[in-house]
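name: query_chain
kind: protein
chains: 1
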Amino acid sequence: MVQMRNRSGRCSMLALVVFLSAMTQSSAAAPANAVQAWETWTDQSKLLAPVAGIAFGKNVPLPLNIEVDASQRFQEMVGFGASITDASAWLIQHRMSEPQRAALLEDLFGKAPGLGFSFTRLTIGSSDFSLQHYSLDDVAKGQTDEALSKFSIEPMRADVLPVVKRALTINPQLKIMASPWSAPAWMKSNDSLFQGKLRPEAYGVFARYLGKFADAMEAEGLPLFALTLQNEPHFEPSTGYPGMRVDSAARAKLIGEQLGPLLAKRATPVRLLDWDHNWDEPQAPLQVLADPVARAFVAGVAWHCYVGDVAVQAQVHDAYPDKESYFTECSGGEWKPHWRETLPWYMRNLIIGTTRGWAKGVLLWNIALDENHGPHLGGCEDCRGVVTINSKTGEVTRNFDYYALAHASRFVRPGAHRIASTSGEGRLESVAFQNADDNSIVLIVVNSAANTRQFSVSVGKQNFAHTMPGASVVTFVWNPPH
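structure:
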């Protein structure tokens, strides 16, 4: 693996496929007590590199010991992935050759040796990562369209829809969620896509607008799994891209009286998720869930990473354990460019923290951006995609965002259940899952310490030992030992 990648994360796709296919074939004949493992070191000398020679035995557990218990089962997983924004889709469609495009999408959405992304997010209208600002029902200033006669998903046809359809062909288990950054300007208090609030008298037409989007996507063969009524509803961007404030009382009223009943009438159900914003205001979704009318229509809560602590996900779940949890956005960027600092943070918070906090699905933000952190129109000027696509050559660089997701998405398949594992001793944090199709167990461990850690992993009376350097990540996979 080391020989196939240079330090920027570029690789030969053909070599990667051949190498990992051989690993997959050899693992089929592995002894019953064998443990497969893949490591990433933040000096980039190992990037999802296989580790040989690990096996269960009846040894004395080490002082640092992670216990895995498959008898304790928690949420069922939808999966991992990233958003197919307008910018990402445009790059994939227009800045890559067909062989490059096919290789990238197979790598991201295909089965091992691909990453197996099974969850993605779309924008309903534009975001800051679009080439122009628009809604799906734009009219001249001062006009309205209460009948939604001008509604159209035409702006998605050139780039977004072809990429999503191809991803769904590669992975038929792909689940699609969607979020608007703003209602059409004519529904808002300031008659603008930027800032402002949804007018109370427009609640009904906005609900129908979102319903028409769900209908249009289903007609394209892309049924929605989930929907939020507003991205980051307590934030009105001041940097020139669409946004809209919808406070908790307004969301509860809109959901309870308009959007919830409308979605409940659909033959194909769509999960309605509240919040879709940061960890720092857990009281905001709790206020919506406290409304008994709205609560009946809310399937769960969606979270972002930019402010606050991941621990609040579990707190909200504990208050309403029948409601699902999803993690729906986090972007890396040049403000945290160093692997040694940022990869452990990603693993500790976004992969381990979110899923231990009951997230059924985990999404990063742009699945791809170019070498100039775009294309974007307003908003974030130094965000990083899961991969970087060179806008002149189509060459792909796999960022540490890619490897953070890969340590989970390649091994934890849709339908897996999170199971119990000890976490936090000696700055070793972990999360474990059991796949539904073959009962294999996946354990993800990050060493957040600066120094090397030696530890054991115990399942019942059997265990194995492993040593990993500081700021590194390992994924173990095994069949339950006899």
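note: Residues 42 and 340 are 5 Å apart (CA to CA).
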